[in-house]
Automatic annotation (TrEMBL):
Name this polypeptide is given: Sieve element occlusion
Pfam families for the chain: SEO_C, SEO_N
Organism the protein comes from: Tagetes erecta (African marigold)
Biological process according to GO: phloem development
Residue span, Sieve element occlusion N-terminal domain: 67-339
Domain Sieve element occlusion C-terminal: 504-734
Amino acid sequence: MSLNPRQQLLGMAYSIMPQQQLMGLKGNTMIDPMHTSRQPEMIGPVQNPTMQQLNIGERNSISCTLDENAIMKQVLDTHLPDGTIVDGKSLMQMAEELLQDITINAESTSSVAQTDVVQLEEKYHKIDVLLTSNILSHTIDKLACEMLFKLLTSVDGDSIAISLLHLVENFHWDAKLALILATFALIYSTDQLEMSTDILEQVPMITEYSTPLKPRSDALNELIYSVLELSWCIFQFKELPSVSSKVPAMTRALSTVPTAVYWNVRGIISCAAHITRMGYEYEISSIEIESSELSSLVLKINPLLEFLRKQLEEYNHVIGKKNEMDLIETFSQVLDTAHIDNMNILNILLNPWNEPLPLFDGATKQRVSLEVLRKRNVLLLISGLDMSRDEVSILEQIYSEMRVQGRRMDSLYEVLWVPIVDLSVMNTDKVKEQFEDFMNSMPWYSVYNPSQVGMVQRSIREMWHFRNKPILVVLDPQGKELNLNAFHMMWIWGSNAFPFSIAREEALWREETWRLELLTSGMDPTILDWVRESRYIFLYGGDDIEWIRKFTSNARAIARAAGIPLEMCYVGKSKQRENVRRAIATINVEKLSYFWEDLTLVWFFWTRIESMLFSKIQLKHADDQDLVMLQIKKLLSYDKDGSWGLLCRGSHILTIGHGSTMLQTCVDFDLWKQHIPSRGFDLSFKNYHDKLHGATNNCSRFEFPIVEGSIPEGMRCPECHRSMEKHIAFICCHDQTGLLEPY
């Protein structure tokens, strides 16, 4: 009858041993140490002299270990690699699977786990195939013979380790360890299938001895676990990309690997020795000593494991930084190079793994290839998962308008969401669900797997100044940058900003003037009607309810007295949205003025104002001679201080001022009304307000979120025109986020 590879392995191992070393109980009966745990008659006093010697020899091998320096010299002398390639990973995986089956259970006093027989048959069939096809099976045979022979002849652990390492001297350190570990696992799991059935016969006798054996079985399991962990850690160094050996962590790790391999081999030998004699009788008093021996090796292996893991972490950090810098350089070079289309830059940015379908189409809800973006204007929407629904909602409206305009201009474009997600939490159910909800809610394309852009996250932050706040990077059909953040343009001019280039932004500003339509754009048709009818219009903001009551009441009073058509619209604040909600509720109940019921419009109003500021700064227009810039700075400063008002006649803005001076101008109507017949209401109101404003000596302050990446070097106060001091502010994000927050 033919033997399978595992049976051949054991046959060869035992065939080379002297017969007397295999003599056991029952009058010189031949004993197979692999099968002794199945024999109920073995339970009793210790009688086997061979196993007694093995027990003593192994126990003394730790306490009487030779000087480690001398041992390590012997270990290094065994290392003569000739470049032989070994599939060490497959051997390690096989060993780990087998060792899971032989993990010691104190309640069985054997190397048998409660394993399904069918699963074992399938597993061993795979192993037989591996051994048959593995050219190193001869080496494993020799290791098995050497290990079993020297264990049963009571050779000490140090000598066995050196002997085994000599047999694998032509392999690299990781391969040596894989071969020895695989040999150990094969020897002590070969008859697992038979044991899984036969062990049931011993249950009554096993139970009596299960409790005292538990400390030793626990210690043995712990040592096997530590050996496996250290082995995989060593293999991780093998799989690292080849880089300069000058990385200190790698140098330290490589100098430690021989020591780690040696002590792992010693751990394997100790496990083998203890498992081998588990089928023989022993004195219960020896269990504590044996447990201590096993634990001593765990205490030797675990610090090595901790040290190598630390070096691995440090190495990965250093290499990660290097790779990031290389990628940034590559990214920069690609952006600066002329291309016939945008595929090169998009592949580097979005598809480093060469996935066939790396994108998700929000319209069809299907995965698609990068080809859908070839030779298109691409707007890269780069954000985290905290992008507000208000932003998405407004962007969707503009997106629809731009799609129509893009077709009309024969300038096709696409929007693509590039999610920047902390990959360490990406696999949690909550984050996965949040990402999928976002992706499915967007009508444009999205990167299907955030991990695809994990490698270029730092490049995006460095090259495009992404600081967690959403940005919109524009690439032309050849992949050339047109704008590092077109959001400002999009919020201000919508689809009219197409194709979102810097040149287009400059042109749009040249056409603009300080007028009401700039502030409200097409946000509200009611306000546009007021403009067309040349009505007087008060836009006002703040969250002080008492000021709102007084201001609206006095404003209506002077309108009646002067006989002018006056409308008022409350536009809230750029932050503290809960206060704004309460103010709107009061305005609604008391019918104080017109207001925006949809708070998204309040958010959008202030987003556009802020975008105007940053657009001007980005274009280096932060000049006091720029009237629009001056007025924008005033408006944002007043919003920061509290209440404010802005008076228009039609589209023409007459004046803007702090809440205190605006209210006082209305209260003091009797003091300036006599000028209305000669100067008109517009000039009379403005002159009196400017007089009050000059007397109050108000100055301004601004806060620039660092996420913008566009903080100006200097700024002049829009009121007194002196240079402003620069401060650093820390602001809690619970109710405000810099100038703006989503509503």
